[in-house]
């Protein structure tokens, strides 16, 4: 009996841990996002609340961070207020490295612009597009994977207590919007897959549709048409369209037929 009880002594401990975690709203939301397959959303929520998850995280002042620009003290850089030890990459971040300008500061904007001048080495990312913010967030993930996370930089993205600022919220909202735009773009391409396109000197441009064109497998062929995401904009792409589908009927104003294409043909040659 004693042996049996001993085997189950861990159960109330695990139950207490699970109860504590589940009833913490942040952990609960992270688990929900993971359960729903939203890995990016879970990661961003983790980033935003890593001070709670890791209470021993160090807070750096801008002046303190400037000390970490050499191999004696170490090579540190900050990206969207997150500080990383990149000393192991000294060939890139050391005094003779191409990215030494990033060390000892938060120069987030330069990751996007490539501008290493004094004005370009700034943490002001307010002008970033949603797509650029996502690219920046991908860089943060890269640094978490490859280098050592050391703490947070007090200033633009974290306050004196290490709490996220309004600027960080604005940045993360752009990242979230970028993911939504990607999802919307993927859905659009599933409804209206890109055409196959080929150009030959003697024949010009050929566009055609198959059941796998655009890399999207489906049970219909479609006909090539010009697709205008924004009807007021002249930019368009060739899309394979199922003219009997509700999706086409609801978005008919966004399509124009190619003059060179026969009414129901899945292939045509365009004038160049």
User: What is the tally of beta strands?
Assistant: 11
CATH topology of the largest domain: Flavocytochrome B2, Chain A, domain 1
Discrete helix count: 11
Number of domains: 3
Strand order in the sheet with the most strands: 1-5-4-3-2
**Rg on CA atoms, Å:** 26 Å
Write the layout of secondary structure elements.
Blueprint: H1 2-7, H2 10-22, H3 25-35, H4 39-48, H5 50-53, E1 58-60, H6 62-65, E2 69-70, E3 74-79, E4 82-85, H7 90-93, H8 110-113, H9 130-146, E5 148-153, H10 166-191, E6 196-200, E7 204-208, E8 223-227, E9 237-241, H11 246-250, E10 255-257, E11 267-270
Parallel strand pairs: 1-5
Antiparallel strand pairs: 2-3, 3-4, 4-5, 6-7, 7-11, 8-9, 8-10
Helix pairs in contact: 3-4, 4-10, 9-10
Explain what you see.
The chain has a five-stranded mixed β-sheet. The longest helix is centred in the middle third of the chain and has 26 residues, at 166-191. Helix content is 38%, strand content 18%. It is α+β, with helices and mostly antiparallel strands and 272 residues long. The protein has three domains: 10-53, no CATH class; 59-183, Flavocytochrome B2, Chain A, domain 1; 192-270, no CATH class. β2 and β3 (74-79) form a beta hairpin. Residues 60-154 form the Cytochrome b5 heme-binding domain. Pfam families: Cyt-b5 (PF00173). Belongs to the cytochrome b5 family. MAPR subfamily. It comes from Aphidius gifuensis (Parasitoid wasp). InterPro entries: Cyt_B5-like_heme/steroid-bd, Cyt_B5-like_heme/steroid_sf, MAPR/NEUFC/NENF-like.
